[in-house]
Structure formats: C-alpha cells, structure tokens
Write a structure and sequence with these properties.
Blueprint lengths: L2 E5 L2 E4 L4 E8 L8 E6 L6 E6 L6 E3 L7 E6 L4 E6 L8 E8 L11 E4 L3 E6 L1
Parallel strand pairs: 2-11
Antiparallel strand pairs: 1-3, 3-8, 4-5, 4-9, 5-6, 7-8, 9-10, 9-11
C-alpha cells in the first residue's frame, strides 16, 4: 500500500511560481502511475496532471498545459508539481494520488490512494 503526504502549498502572487511535493511511503510506490488533482470548495475535484510509473509519460489538463510540470523521483519516493505563471483560478486544495492499477488516471474515480491535500492560494 501507499501513503502520501503533500507539502509546499501557500500564498503566491499571480504570475509567480510554486513547487509542490508529495512524499510517499511503501516499497511499491514506483509501480504506480500518479497524479495531481485539485478541488475548490463546492466544486468537483479535477485531474491536473498525471505521470506514468516510470515518469516517461505525462499528461496535463488544458487549463495548466505549458505552465505546470509534473515529475517524479522514484529513488526518493517523491512526486512534484512545478507551478509557474500561476493564476487566481489555480487557487485550490491540491492532492497527490496513486492511480488504481490498470487505469489511466484520467478522472478522479480512477485514483486509489490520496494525500491529505495542501492549500494553494493565488492572489491578484
């Protein structure tokens, strides 16, 4: 099993940058596809970016493409989300999560393990 803990959230000005980290426990971390998701109170949770178990394949929501970069370091059991040129609409609680084996992780329902979330607030 996998346990996940996010960190790196905080307050940032529009146009600035922030880097989120997700620390994982469990020997099998490297066998899971992973993703970053976000949620605003009263709204559905959305997939922001996904990364394959090896890191060789990444996918992004159109809203963040070109601004955010997902990466992972399996040797450190850690996943990252580099957020550049942030916008007020990026304000949300960000979660890291592990994809159910055999799924693509394109939708929130395909994730099995979740972190507690970290708040990102972008001011204008």
């Amino acid at each position: 099993q996998v346990q996940l803990v996010e960190s790196g959230g905080g307050l940032v000005q529009a146009g600035g940058s922030l880097k989120l980290s997700c620390a994982a426990s469990g020997r099998t971390f490297s066998t899971y596809a992973m993703g970053w998701l976000r949620q605003t109170p009263g709204k559905d949770r959305d997939v922001v970016a996904t990364i394959s178990w090896s890191g060789g394949t990444t996918r992004y929501a159109d809203s963040v493409k070109g601004r955010f970069t997902i990466s992972r370091d399996n040797a450190k059991n850690t996943m990252y989300l580099q957020m550049n040129s942030v916008k007020p609409e990026d304000t949300a609680v960000y979660y890291c999560a592990a994809v159910v084996k055999g799924r693509l992780g394109s939708i929130p329902q395909e994730y099995e393990y979740w972190g507690q979330g970290t708040q990102v607030t972008v001011s204008s």
